[in-house]
């Protein structure tokens, strides 16, 4: 008999909380069932298996992260928006390590990904922020990948205690954002955007 009060949403939220507490790689259906005081079979009415549970946690976390970023960048542009985006990303990842790990670790089934809009929304938020730097494809994708790599690498090193120098980690983070802003403002030539600008300049001279 299914325990009263259990729903797919409640089970997913509990799994995300458990991931933050013990690490995403340590969540199991059995551990989650114990947290509810039920047998494993009670949860299988709400999740198919461990992979399904982990996919649900990843989608929940990706949606939460997108909401944080959207609220942070609203009404901002340029460096202010990029810094707000970065800070929302970092704050969420450090406050919810298990949830964040889920967004990085889970290989979503293509069918699951097709039914969800949360990952596409994150890409849209990233591109909207980057368009203020007058970037177009393929530079939008290239710059988005650079920012994600920079943010992720910094966050993982910070969370693992990888910065041993006496300089404050926050100070280095702020300077890193200054550097990323400078790079985005001076994105290397060779993109369609730059080619169009060069042609326009040649026509004026």
TrEMBL record:
<feature type="domain" description="HTH tetR-type">
    <location>
        <begin position="5"/>
        <end position="65"/>
    </location>
</feature>
<dbReference type="InterPro" id="IPR001647">
    <property type="entry name" value="HTH_TetR"/>
</dbReference>
<keyword id="KW-0238">DNA-binding</keyword>
<dbReference type="GO" id="GO:0003677">
    <property type="term" value="F:DNA binding"/>
</dbReference>
<dbReference type="Pfam" id="PF13305">
    <property type="entry name" value="TetR_C_33"/>
</dbReference>
<feature type="DNA-binding region" description="H-T-H motif">
    <location>
        <begin position="28"/>
        <end position="47"/>
    </location>
</feature>
<protein>
    <recommendedName>
        <fullName>HTH tetR-type domain-containing protein</fullName>
    </recommendedName>
</protein>
<keyword id="KW-0805">Transcription regulation</keyword>
<dbReference type="Pfam" id="PF00440">
    <property type="entry name" value="TetR_N"/>
</dbReference>
<dbReference type="InterPro" id="IPR036271">
    <property type="entry name" value="Tet_transcr_reg_TetR-rel_C_sf"/>
</dbReference>
<dbReference type="InterPro" id="IPR009057">
    <property type="entry name" value="Homeodomain-like_sf"/>
</dbReference>
<keyword id="KW-0804">Transcription</keyword>
<dbReference type="InterPro" id="IPR025996">
    <property type="entry name" value="MT1864/Rv1816-like_C"/>
</dbReference>
């Amino acid at each position: 008999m299914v325990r009263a009060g259990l729903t797919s949403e409640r089970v997913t939220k509990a799994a995300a909380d458990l991931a933050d507490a013990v690490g995403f790689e340590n969540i199991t259906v059995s551990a989650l069932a114990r947290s509810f005081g039920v047998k494993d079979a009670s949860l299988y009415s709400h999740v198919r298996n461990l992979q399904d549970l982990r996919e649900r946690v990843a989608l929940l976390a990706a949606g939460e992260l997108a909401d944080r970023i959207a609220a942070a960048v609203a009404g901002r542009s340029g460096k202010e928006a990029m810094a707000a985006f970065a800070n929302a990303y970092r704050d969420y990842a450090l406050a919810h390590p298990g949830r964040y790990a889920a967004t990085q670790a889970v290989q979503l089934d293509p069918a699951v990904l097709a039914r969800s809009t949360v990952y596409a929304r994150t890409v849209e938020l990233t591109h909207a922020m980057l368009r203020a730097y007058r970037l177009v494809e393929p530079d939008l994708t290239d710059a988005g990948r650079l920012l994600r790599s920079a943010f992720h690498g910094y966050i993982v090193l910070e969370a693992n205690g990888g910065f041993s120098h006496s300089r404050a980690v926050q100070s280095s983070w702020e300077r890193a954002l200054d550097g990323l802003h400078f790079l985005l403002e001076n994105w290397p030539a060779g993109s369609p955007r730059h080619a169009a600008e060069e042609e326009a300049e040649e026509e004026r001279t």
